[in-house]
Amino acid sequence: MVKVANVKKKASMLLALTLASTMVLSACGSNNENKGSESTGGEGASGKPVTLKVEVFDRGNSPSGSTITKNYLTSYAQDNFGTPNNINLQYVPIPRSEEIQKLNVLMASGSDVPDIVFTYDSPTFYRYAQQGGLTELGELLDQYGPNLKKFLGEDTLAYGQYEGKQYALPAKRAHLGKYSSFIRQDWLDKLNLPVPQTTDELYNTLKAFKEKDPGQTGGKVIPLGMALASAQYEPLIWSFIQPVTEEQRYTLTQQLGSNDYPTLLPGFKDALQFMNRLYNEGLMSTDFSLDEDKKKLGEDAAKGLVGFFSEDDMNPFYADALYATLQKNIPDAKLSAVDVYTNSEGKHPKPEYAPVGLYLMIPKSSKNAVEAIKYLDWMASGDNLLNMQNGVEGENYTLQDGIPVTKADASDEVKNRIYNWGDMAIISNGKQLGDTEKNVEAYVFGMPEQFREETRKALSVSRSDTIKPVLFDRPIEAQSKYGTSLRDKFHEIIVKTTMVKPDQFDGTFESMMKDYMANGGQAILDERTKAYEAMK
Amino acid sequence: MNAIAYLRRYWQLYALLILPVSYFIIFKYGPMYGIIIAFKDFNFFQGINGSEWIGFDAFREVFAMSDFYKTLRNTLMLNGLDLLVSFPAPLILAIMLYELNIVWFKKLSQTILYIPHFISWVIIGGIVYQVFGTQSGMINNIVTSLGFESIPFLTDKSDWLITYLVVGVWQSAGWGTIIYLAALTGINRELFEAAEVDGAGRLRKIWSITLPSLKPTIVTLLIINVGHMIAIGFERPYIIGNTAVRDYSDVLSTFVYRIGIESGQYTLATVVGLFQAVVGLVFVLGANYFSKKLADQSIL
């Protein structure tokens, strides 16, 4: 052996040793994380204050002077709930746009996760429950949350159960309506046409819009505004679905993400055929497949190019939203809320929301489950929810027939107090005033005065002939597994069958459906059929 | 010279190495530990160690998915086309810039060509929709005003491929010239003067002097590119792609995003990632071997 080589060898071994020790060190760092996940009921009404960490959505819209973790409402909760109970409330911001990803990371870290977390996504909730990451809440709710239990009610609580046990407390939804349709009333007037009452009449109206161009758009008219978003395609598609038996409803519906999809229900093909016809006759937005966030549709409608479209019931009416912009561009434009899409029985079916909003959960690693329930129970008791959602009576709002009406002349500082009420009053989705009629009226009074009448109409359209989501007493695992991919495939079915030449429609539909079934559709169908058998 | 004397003499060099080496260990080798979850039924709350071993079950599941083969095919297709179109673009551009004699114009052109590289794909996506949209895109506005049918640049599969490639060249070609231009500064000017004396024209000079001097650079970049054949960036196909062209725009990275991040199936996502890494390694070694054999150039 040559000596120099030997030396070099030793030196490189030394180097390797340094590397190895660094490696061990860095590995140690990641080892400590999964400890301390035993959950205990918290005591601590006296002595050292307990810190209760609560997730909060950050939409980056905090007015100057406040932050998402320190504002009027956080102080309100601290002063009225925290301090009297010797609890320090701490809010953990999560960006709204990436809530699921961020929550996944937090939950996986196990150590720094808030005591109250939430998501809108039911598959995420099921996954956490299935993997054993959540605290069971049944007893805690009975013991520490009587007001909360009463407020949420059985219907809503049923959505938070996994295999018969309460693992989440779903927020209660104030208004279950989803979609309404809208038509340019001034166009109809100009052409001397009545408001279409059925899908067939709608087709003729759209044709008239196209041929006569009552808005004088110079050939740019889009008779039916469409986007690749549920508010646009769902009302159309569901109106083609045939009346079904209860068994069909349970087994053939496919829940992908939070919505029910009619992929296998009778009539789905007819709906696509209708869309194909509209598209190929130039009656529908050409680029709808690119418009997943409805932005293009909103622009086109505000520019006055769109004759008819469906949308989330209240969306067009907010101050500075679609209708306001449209009237700015075209002063005599008039938008009417209408209920047009008709099924074979002459009804106007459209999906409604499940009676839930956020799924509120307490991670298993939380040591403050009791305090967490107390916090939510506090929110549901007395006037706390009213105050959090509406601010101070006389300053933020006045009561008219039991409905809080926002004072339009309040100063910005006063208005800004409750800029984040929706994200702070997490036990409720929308304003809760005791019954649906009042809740809906509260929405109406939240709109600019000139749009209130039309808002009221849209809100009654969205609540009529609705189809309730199908709820099983057990989670369908195939749905959480394939849901996201299949939703993409569902969109692909819509886009391809709509855009294809009419003579290729059948072939495209067949091959797309085959692809859909092979990639999870069949698995969901099988599991739902089995679950239905077991439930009977 | 024994080990101690050797170390005493050179310890500073080794000390300098500590920082980069620990970077690679912590950020490149450390995370490899996570590859284990490809062989486990990964459960969030029990962590990597607590999850159960499942052997190759997850691999079987992935290899049985038809979407996996579709995205694999698309990844190879898009990268292959990129290699044909986007790879030569910076080379041609660099030679053209090199041939320019007016200094200020050359500098200005370079700057303008670099800019797209610094624009985020999200913004490029917005621009692409404005320019190539069927209904109100800039190009189609012109096309229709001339009385032609509008061209579905974004919603027809084959047209979309062209859009995808053109946007890729626009975004990266300018930036890619930097390496070639650096290599070109190393050419001895006397070679050109001698060639001129011998009566060589411009094209002859490019062919016989410029290109041969760039050969090592080209080969190195080619090997790197071939090594990336199976890896594909996430943003470009995800943002430029859309539902109507998913047959072509769905690639391995968007597939991983969908099953891993969106559906929370980390095990399956890791399987795909590991598969990409292994195949990528084979590609690099293969390309290197061939270039050694054929052109006597290699990077390993």
Automatic annotation (TrEMBL), chain A:
The keyword Secreted does not apply. This is Aldouronate transport system substrate-binding protein. PROSITE patterns: PROKAR_LIPOPROTEIN. Pfam families: SBP_bac_1. Residues 1-26 form the signal peptide. Keywords: Cell membrane, Lipoprotein, Membrane, Palmitate, Signal. SUPFAM superfamilies: Periplasmic binding protein-like II.
TrEMBL record, chain B:
PANTHER family: BLL4140 PROTEIN. It comes from the Bacteria. The chain crosses the membrane at residues 12-39, 83-105, 112-132, 161-183, 214-234, 266-290. Keywords: Cell membrane, Membrane, Transmembrane, Transmembrane helix, Transport. Residues 72-287 form the ABC transmembrane type-1 domain. This is Aldouronate transport system permease protein. InterPro entries: MetI-like, MetI-like_sf, UgpAE/MalFG_permease. Belongs to the binding-protein-dependent transport system permease family. It is found in: Cell membrane. Its main location: membrane. SUPFAM superfamilies: MetI-like (SSF161098). It comes from Paenibacillus harenae. Gene3D superfamilies: MetI-like (1.10.3720.10). It is a multi-pass membrane protein.
